[in-house]
Amino acid sequence: MKISISDLRALCLNAGFDAVGFTAPSLPGSARAGLGQFLEAGHHGDMDWMEKNQEVRADPAAIWPEAKSVIVLGMNYGPKADPLQKLAQAEHGTISVYALNRDYHDVIKGRLKQLCQQLHKRFGGDFR
What we know:
The protein is mainly alpha-helical. The protein is 39% helix and 8% strand.
């Protein structure tokens, strides 16, 4: 069973994502080179996981060779109010936006699982 791009986009938006895009499971050579330069310069800090399996990270098809397309999702995790306004209140401490709510890893993972379950139920196949 096939699904239209607009129907797939609607499912993603209904799962709570704000931006939806589609692409092939490949990266241009410039992205691979950029990743290497980024890591060599140490810009990843103490996130050692970024260095592990660098070759696989630079080639989405190496992660999942059977993949035919990639759904790219975005979600605004920012608050409704402008968080910079709090900086003007010097008598109060300011907490980083990402630390104010539930861990965004958990929020996004939950929404991804929900979306993948819906897609699998309607169309079968595998999702990651």
